[in-house]
From TrEMBL:
Pathway: Aromatic compound metabolism; melatonin biosynthesis; melatonin from serotonin: step 1/2. The active site is at H266. It comes from Larimichthys crocea. PROSITE patterns: SAM_OMT_II (PS51683). This is Acetylserotonin O-methyltransferase.
Amino acid sequence: MAERQEVGLSEGTPAADMYPRKILEYMEGFLVSKVVFSSCELGVFDLLLSAERPLSAEEISQAIGASLDGTQRLLAACTGLKLLNTLQDNGQVLYSNTEQASVYLTRSSPLSLYQSIQYSSRTIYLCWHHLTDAVREGRNQYEKAFGVNSKDLFQALYRSDEEMVKFMQLMNSIWNICGKDVVTAFDLSSFKVICDLGGCSGALAKQCTSAYPECTVTIFDLPKVVCTSREHFVTEADQRISFHEGDFFKDPLPEGDLYILARILHDWTDERCVELLSKVYKACKPGGAVLLVEALLYEDGSGPLTVQLYSLNMLVQTEGRERTAAQYATLLTAAGFSNIQHRLTGKIYDAVLGNKEA
């Protein structure tokens, strides 16, 4: 049978005869996400990695404590998504991880996205259930999703110790993959004293000390975040990384040559961004700079799609939005910074550098 061809209206075909392939794919997008989320949660990829050989659906279902029928369907979907490989052995189907699944979907991998996936499944996904309300109301949806007052954004984000650790693990996994690219987008070797505002787990600070062996990095974050980072993420071996406890809107900032704000400004309104950047400008040494690490929209707002979706996520989760390089430049200029440049990394996050005159 000949494959059905997609024909546009411009060729005179009635709309009823068109096949809405893309629209159907979009409608099913959340199904794909949940297959990945559930497979990680059940430990499918971890099991196949540790087994060191292909396994049958029966072996997998027994090991993860799931029904055989449900496991077979889940494995089939993972195969269709090219997360699993299959082979036939005496009429039996055996499953193994693809290389990307082993690298990014297993808990033990240094580049694991497992914790990020868990945060997406258990936090972001629930907020997005209320996207329609977020668009109508123009505000985040923590109250509907979790029954938490969101007037203090980080009280909502860190509404429990468990949730705070999940968020920090999310940030850790992101910077393990993208961190080197953003801290080397510009040559920052002339800056010896770096302050990472909202540095969270310290993953980006580690990328800085790795790329620039002569620098020191101070992570400025809330006291409970600092405590958790010291306990779970930054060891005594990281001798060039230190901590400063505080709220960057309320408390004085330590003096530095370079301030890094990675995924910080997209949480806030323009007014709050200028307020924070003005504090950074005052604390920054003459000849110093600020590095913004954000996902940049095209100047006409037409993409990238991922960043457009992230901007909607900022609506359901924060007070902010994603912005263009020009919009970040406007915020930096309002705070006093000059000679503003931006660099695209080719990955999710990009870099914007603003300088303080000597």
